[in-house]
Amino acid sequence: MGNSRGMKVLASLIALTLAAISPAAQAQDVAAVAPVSRPALDYEAELQRTLEGYDSTGMVASVLIDGEMVYLGALGTAEEGSNRPVTTDMAFPIASISKAFTTTALAILVDRGKVDWDAPVRRYIPEFAMYDPWVSEHFTVRDALTHRSGLPLGAGDLLIWPDGNAAPADVIAALPHLRPSTGFRDGYAYDNLLYIVAGEIVERVSGDSWADFVTDELLVPIGLTGCAAQMDRIPEGMSVVTGHERAANADAGVPVDERLQFSPTWSAAGGIFCTAGDMMTWAKFWLDDGVTQRSERLLSEAQLAEVWTGVTPVSAPGFLKASGSSHLALYSLGWFVQDYEGTLMVRHSGGAPGVVSNLILLPEKGIAIFASSNDYRPAAHSFTYHIANALIADEKRDLIADLGAAFRSAEQNGEVLIADMVQAPGAPSAPDLALPAYAGTYRDAWYGDVHISQDADGLFIDMSRSEILDGALTHFSGNRFAAFWPDSSLKADAYVDFLVEDGAVTGLTMQAISDLTDFSYDFHDLQLQRVN
Fold first, then answer.
1. Where does the Peptidase S12 Pab87-related C-terminal domain start and stop, copy by copy (predicted)?
2. Which of 264, 354, 387, 426 is the one with CA 20 to 30 A from 96?
3. Cα gap 2→463, rounded to integer Å
């Protein structure tokens, strides 16, 4: 998802500082300063306000200050209409926040001399290729981690989203067929597939599966007993939250289809589950210079600095720029880094099916903030940014109120197009061709086959890699149809445009109808040619 699904992400320019000053030196400087007086905050009340402001089913949050967890809380229910409460020992999918675990695994391998950030990916995966032969030869491990490949946003995610069945080998085979939208290293476009490639590098170099390596080299030594490398590794009996989505104008979220849960292929890009408390243990590991609670150093100072060194420029969040809180942001290795109120902010968000999370670190202030909501709404961002502002900003802002009001306004005023409210303009018209003319198999080089069939009710589309993206086609106009998927909470309905030459259908293209559709539904990247 993106952002992870996600999601849908943000970051800073302190890369120059990080290049010159190691995290250890920063920690020493901070330790030498007299303790800072922090404002007294009612975290529980702020979480309650966030929950109510976004009509969230449930939320968890945690805050760490100067090495101590000052808040750990949970509100709401695990499923809409149930009596099962959200609890602090409940595992939440952290989605794309998992990317930092993958880069940390690679950093360990760099320290061991087994991986080089600037080595071509082909050194570790000989069959790796991109659309352009020169790019294929020069594409480095660092390129795979910093969203500067030249591919469009979320390119190829339909291989594994929403319930795609692709394996890592399928992802690698698909990459040469994905067309770039910018030049190589010319700009920022968030992706997930290249983190799957990064996970494959971990596996081939270490000889262990990505999940085994992350578990043995990170989760266990750091003490993340409430985290699992992927869903099928969650300990039996551990409580797991249920994600919720909602269709247009729905009063409450509904539990997501179980088929939407991330497959193991997602793991390196967004497959980890954690409790809110363990997210503070993870944060403390970074704030403590990569040293575990047992005083074990997992990363060298050089690699700590490398992971937080910005690479790809991105836009700082608009609401922070407008207030003067932030000006510059970069994507580093699995993290966003940016300036915030004159200090360094390191962060990442994550969007899983029906769950949105956000993690903020303020290393120079000794602060970490995490929140997650089991609704696909930006409640977690409002809470974390509000707490960051309350703790360190000179000008206090009620970001829970401000961001929540903006979100509600967007919903109420119809500033976003909801796909299942679209209707064909004017009087109904017949398709340009008889329905049997559109039926057939259409093939895309990276995705595979899409099947169009006809029955007594009309045309039906089968996306082949997904059971969820199968549904009836509704005629719109001319050779344009619309796919309204049975699960309207996906907000992913799509136009299906058949290409006709000399009276014969030769192919089709697709595009999402709604501006709300998650970027991982990259229908627009498909170039489907008719094969029968």
1. 425-530
2. 387
3. 19
